[in-house]
Structures are given as C-alpha cells and as structure tokens.
Design goal:
By secondary structure, the chain is mostly helical. The chain has nine helices and two strands; from the N terminus they run H-H-H-E-E-H-H-H-H-H-H.
C-alpha cells in the first residue's frame, strides 16, 4: 500500500488548521468509501486504491484561495482537483490523479465548464468514470470542510447539489441506489 500520509506530509508539513481540515475531511470520505466497499462486495472495489484515493482527493487545496478553510493560495477553488491531479501525476499516480480531477460536484461536463466559464482546460475529463472514482466522488458529497463534525444525510446532500443542475442530481441519486 502506498503511504498516502507521506504524500500529505510533503505538501502539508506543518501542524496547522489547514492540515487538520484536510486530514479530518479526507479520513471521513475514506471511511465512507470503505463502508460502501464492505456493504457491496459484488462491486469488487479495489479497497486499497479507494482508501488511498479518498485520502488524497483534495491534496491540491493548499494552492487555492479559500480562506474559510484556511487556504491562502492564489488559484480559484474550482481548480483544486486539477492542481491535485497535477501533483499526483508528477509522482506517477495517474489513477489517483484522475480521482482528484473528477470529484468536483458529481463531475463536470465540458458543457458545464463552458456555460459557467470555469477556469478549467477542456482537454481533460472531469466526470468520474470507474466505480472507485464514482465512490470517492459520492462519499465526498456528505462531508464539508467547513463543518468537520457534520455528516449530511442523503436528503441534505441532494439539496446541496440542486444548484448544479438536474443531470448532477440524477447522477447522485443513481449512486444512492448503487451504493446505499
């Protein structure tokens, strides 16, 4: 098993609020992913990869401007998956990088990127493809980085996704059927 914590330590070497937020949030996401894998052995999920990817899915947040979660970088927060993907690709972790790039909302289509004028290059895929990518994306939606003590319900999560459009909401409910 790859040591996800050593990668986190490389980019978050100091004990501070941002590191605590990242570790707490990512551990919650990883635990939910592993619970889904245990509940659904028929999905044959790669649990080792699932845990690693969940722990690393937000690795790029430190370069973003999101003061509410102690991120004081210069990039728009929407780019944190792209940044994390780049960091992990540099380490040869392509599958992990794809999880970073594909976990925003329930995934972002090129049409959404264009319509919302998001600062993301269109030569990449931002929608989760593999089951493991889908599980991490799904699990992530239940945990906020601003309320670390809160686990949203399915209903609360669905309400938080309504603003992203009907397609994303339908994808989320498909995942509810598949993973719950």
């Amino acid at each position: 098993m790859m040591d996800s914590l050593s990668i986190i330590n490389e980019y978050y070497p100091s004990e501070n609020d941002l590191r605590r937020i990242l570790l707490t949030h990512s551990r919650s996401v990883a635990d939910r992913c592993l619970l889904i894998a245990r509940k659904h052995p028929e999905l044959r999920l790669d649990t080792e990869f699932l845990e690693e990817a969940a722990l690393l899915h937000d690795i790029g947040i430190y370069q973003c401007d999101a003061p509410g979660i102690q991120c004081f970088g210069t990039e728009p927060y929407i780019c944190h998956g792209l940044i994390g993907g780049r960091l992990l690709r540099e380490k040869g972790l392509v599958r992990h990088a794809q999880v970073c790039e594909r976990h925003t909302g329930t995934g972002l289509s090129h049409e959404q990127i264009i319509a919302q004028q998001l600062p993301l290059p269109l030569d990449m895929i931002y929608e989760p493809d593999t089951l493991e990518e889908q599980v991490v994306c799904y699990a992530d939606k239940f945990y906020s980085k601003t309320r670390l003590d809160l686990e949203r319900t399915v209903e609360q999560t669905a309400r938080s996704l309504e603003k992203f459009g009907e397609a994303g909401l339908q994808r989320f409910f498909h995942w509810v059927d598949l993973f719950e």
